[in-house]
Amino acid sequence: MTVDSLAVRTKQLLDTARYLNLASVGEGGDPWVTTLEYVWFADPLRFVFGSATSSRHSRHIRARPQVSGSLFTTDSAGAGAAISSVDGAQFTGRCTEISPDRLDEYYARFYETVFPDPRQRAEWQLPAALLQSPAPHRLYLVEVERWWLVDTRTWAEDRIDRRIEMPLDAQTPAQPSLCSHARTTS
Can you name the residues that pair with 89 across neighbouring β-strands? Predict the structure, then answer.
């Protein structure tokens, strides 16, 4: 696999996976994993998600900003999915609340992607003022430090689940199209 082919896979995965799993650890060492809807940004690779400041992962992030996570997609539904139809990635990074002075960088794109339908967005989008202290919600930024893709090339022979780490300077593909993994309207 070339770095270019890994970058193409990365973009496809980021554009199609709707949720990421984020692992955090609290002050006392208690681990936690949460599933979050996210929006991604390139150059460098970053994830943005929204959450309540009182949630367990938000409290963990305040105490220890180092996080890890994963995301995956599959072409098939159900337990019979072929290993070749699954793609995924794992990452480590640093997660922080987005400060009020940087909120404009992420606010509009986050809500446009998570709620592409203007009517849904109007119903669910929090005003920027409600994403700042003392309000109980924030947008959070994960700055990805390391990125691995699933490598199933030899799975049929040895049943070993491998990963390929992408170089940091080559990992971020072109910016996604808006609404790439967003909610669909009924």
Answer: 71, 149
CA distance to 87, 92, 114, 136, 141, per residue, from 129 (Å): 38, 30, 19, 11, 17
Number of domains in the chain: 1
Give the predicted TM-score (pTM) of the model. Answer: 0.86
Q: How many CB atoms lie within 10 A of CB 75?
A: 11
Q: The domain containing residue 97 runs over which residues?
A: 3-170
**Assigned token pair, 6:** 């890994």
pLDDT band of residue 155 (cuts 50, 70, 90) is low
Question: Can you tell me the distance from the alpha carbon of 35 to that of 71, in angstroms, rounded to the nearest whole number?
Answer: 9
Question: What's the gap between Cα 40 and its chain centre?
Answer: 6
